[in-house]
Amino acid sequence: MKQRWKIDRRTFLRGTAGALLPLPFLNLMEGKTRNAFGGLSSPDNGPLRFVTLFKPNGVHPPSWNINGGTEFDFRMSPLMAPFSKHKDDLLILDNMGDFGFSSHANSTRRFLSGHHQNKDSASVDQVIANKIGEDTAHRSLELTTEGLFTGQFGCSYISYDKDGGAIPRESDPQLVFDRLFRNPMSDPNQRRSMTSLLDRVSDDAKALNRNAGREDRQTLDQYLTVVRETERRIENMEQSGSNPRIDFSTLQRPEASANLNEQVESMIDLMALALWTDSTRCITYMLGNSNSRMIFDFLGITEQHHYLSHFFRNFSRTNLDSLLKISLWHMEKFDYLLTKLKSYKEGSGTLLDNSVVLFGSGMGHSDNHTAQRIPIILAGQAKGRVKTGRYIRYSENQELSSLHLSLLKTFGVDTDSYSASDSPLPGLDGGYFPEFRERPFESWVTQEAGTITAQGRLRMSDNLDEAKVFYIDITGQESVRIEVVFRDFHDFNLPYHVGTPITLTGNGSSNGSQLLITKVTELKSLFGKSKPGTQNG
Amino acid sequence: MPAPCFRFLLPLLAVTFLQAKDVKIDGTFGSEIQPLLEQYCIKCHGGEKVKGDVDFTTIATKQDVAANFELWELVADVLAFEEMPPEEAKKRPSNAESQQIQNWYQKQFIESVQARPGNLQPRRLSAPEYRNTLRSLFGFDLEVSIIKAEQTVVERSLALKLLPTDPPGASGYVNDTHSAPLTTVTWELYAYLADRALQKLFSFQQPDALEIFVGEPLPPAFRAADLTPDQARSLIRNFAPRALRRPVTETTLAPALNALKDLNGQTLLDATKNELKALLVSPGFIYRGLLFEGEPDKQQAVDSYELAERLSYFLWEDMPDETLSKSAASGDLEDPQKLVAEIDRMLASPKSRTLSESFAHQWFGLADIDDAASDATNREALRSQAVDFLNYLFTEDRPVIELIDSKTAFTNYITASFYPKDRAQLIKYNKPKGIERQLVPNQRITIEHATERGGLLTIPGILAMNRGPVLRGTWMLRKILGERLRDPPANVPAIEAKTPDADLTFRERFDQHRSDSTCARCHDRIDPLGFAMQHYDNSGAYKLSPSYKAPIKKKEHDDDLESLDTSGQLPSGETFKNFEELKSILLSAKRGDIIRNAVEQVLAYALCRKLEPHDRPTVDQIAQTIDETNGTWRDLFIEVSESLPFQETYVSAPSSSLSSTQPKVALLFPKQSHR
Known about the structure:
heterodimer, A: 537 residues, alpha/beta, Alkaline Phosphatase, subunit A, CATH 2.40.50, seven-stranded mixed β-sheet, five-stranded mixed β-barrel, B: 675 residues, mainly alpha, two-stranded antiparallel ribbon, two-stranded antiparallel sheet, 26 helices, 11 strands, 44% helix
């Protein structure tokens, strides 16, 4: 239905710097007239866009991770099911992040700023917005679903300005809609009705003024000054001629949302509309604060999300099921976004073809806060700059900052470094990347007077009833089962080593052919770091 | 020019609304004061040399004396603070001479002043007043779509989220919007909020609200565009007096009704919305007191609609409800008994919680509790203790002086550890499964054991927001005793946290600091009060409690318990060993000051303006009544509502042209002000 709007973006909207203005009805007009489009886009095909969707509270790794498979031949994981239909438009990145542990606040900052200590420069979305968003009415939009977590305020922000200051976020779809499409700056109808309102109230105020005392007059004088000033600004707008070819008044304002699901779907609808109308080219959206305490009552869940995300400590099968329900809901919203972006045709492709969508979280294992194997997916080809339909598992853990540097280059930002990284993440464009390769190692196990030492690949149990259980696989033998208390799980950072070969020593026993370790005393990584940092990085 | 005159901030000076006609000048100026000025002041402030634009030689007649009341206030002030003449002056007045001038000022310009009401000053609704008014008018709130999760801060109200925060006015309260004028941004936001409210009104999520205004039941399948011309007219007729808070004449309604003529369907609906929107952004809606038409150049009682509005914004921070409007229409508010009944009804309404949540919140600076805890849930737990306590005092007819001492407290599982034995009165809180932290309502408890907690001063959040003796002492002086304090000189550093090689205790280093007479002027008043509270740590916990656990990390100001000295002497002479004894002094010797301050705060909030010399007789009379009768907060609210400045006003004569009036800001000595 939206195809009948043929937008001439050149005469469309002109730029102002800055994020969302308080309610920028009349505050939008300061920029000088510019020809829309930077060097990266052409009017026929639409400009490049960058969209971020942040998923709070990490994941349950066995449900998220892709195990095995190659670049072009892989099976998506159970949690990826909701958006598996978009497989051809996805570039799934694995082995992203390398911190043993990370606080919620640090991992959130790292998501778009490369490193948690990168505290005095802009997050990557803002750098990209500066490059591609200068000509739009809204340089960027920063969106969220919930309030400010005051205990660690870094949990509530992913977008930061050039001085490293957190950028306020907006949660209300109706308000965002009004800012985009119901301000007099962008809508001549609004200007007309504003002008008639101003005429009307100034007549009324003048009538009052006739028999007013001194103080009353002062008040009315002040009032009329404001009215006149507003009239003047409206006139200026008329003259400087922002008359978009689309009549924004035909756009439907979203209904008030009754729950989180409606709120998020309304917002995603608006995001697509904002991109399509070229009101903005850069949007970040947080589905929740990192460490979100939200209660997903509309999914029938009564526990707080953060509580459930600590699925080791707070393990019960029903808790884990609830957590996975929430995660699946997040994945469905990612699907919703992609589907929406594809529904808008632009040039010979879709809105998604001209965009990069970055989806992911700040941490991997949500109980241990391991910031390794962080869920990161790119969607959309950015006009052919990103090669999708692939799964990239890097040979080594990759800093998020190298991904950010690559994204900057994708969007034409001329820089050689970003945050902690001066080498871009290779392979996004389909070029060479160091692919993960199995290195040969021997697996074995010894048992001696209650001490068991096992060498082999560590994995989490696939059985959801065993969310606290790990195994070390031994060739030709039954796997060694590891069932330890939280302290051992955390101190030896078992989640960090999952999927890699280790030598692990501990106390335990045998039950028939099954060896069981109940207390870990030593852990060595065969090829990687044995202790991947104990700081809250 | 090295003279260190006016060392302290001049803006602290009152900008008085006193007028020359308010005072009666006797002959003592020529015989007693002029000679002193000639002896000590004229050298720099008269004739050839006129420092700071102060020239005493121009004052000759009684009229001159009366007209220069602001100058005399300054003179009295600099003498009281020993700022003038400067220290290096050759001749300085004796204490007796200085006192003589101060007494003269007191007699001529304070005590002789007759009570009169303030001038009628229309004022813009403050942001919370606007929010509440819009909500009461429409019967629904405009809410922001945002998920409220535990431990997060959200602003649910669209109006409060969007409107600029009003700064406190000269009275210290945000309802004193005189110094926060209307701006284009605010006006545009009013227009936007009006749009949103009208959209919702016609959206039929709200059929009840629309039916009330239309005045008849609407059919079930009614759509907004079905509005008939009759319904539209009655909608405007019913809406206008509610929005403007007083009856509206046919002449006023005529333009709106004319605009609807011969329209129907969608065009009628659009025109109706436009007319309603025009009302909502009109001066009559967004200002208070503008539509009261008094007789010019005359002191007079306000009419009953203005009185109703004053009452409801005072007790509710909101427009009058239907009952109050009816009382205004019937003239009931002029009957003192019926006025009291109305006030009792209003205090019993949940809306009166704004007295604690807004008025007292601002009075005591409870926003600072944000600094007492980083976790949003803990913050609110701490803040709600103070708010619930004040709400109890205000709405349950408790004596004013119970502000200082009370057996009643409010707590929940988060703050219960401050009441180790009394917490047994609480119904046990069982945390629901999967909820990590949760704010729950406080319960009322009677303090039987934790006697160190009774009253506002030792509510944990209050102690935790004011850390250290200086903040606590200053807060008590300003907020409880109502004393004026000047800001400290800019070049004085804060007392250092403990240094390893210092043998002195924290307190001893303060005593050292006080040996400087400049510092002593204020710190003699601040320190005794603050150090009396040193048995309460920075979290508000009581160090002498058997269950006290010292914080793991020692903070500054934390001397060892044994070396803590909580004794002191007030400048007025009373001595005490600890806070308990200080509290007895507050309840006896300082009782009058505390009550008087409470009267001033309530009156200033009710009048939405700073108190002026001509309010002094009103304050005196109410304070005396409350003190003598051990009056309650309810009594105080009634006294204020019945008082002259609340009931009456002065309407000034119209000025000839619109822009001829100047803002009433007396800029004294602009060249001298150091900042």
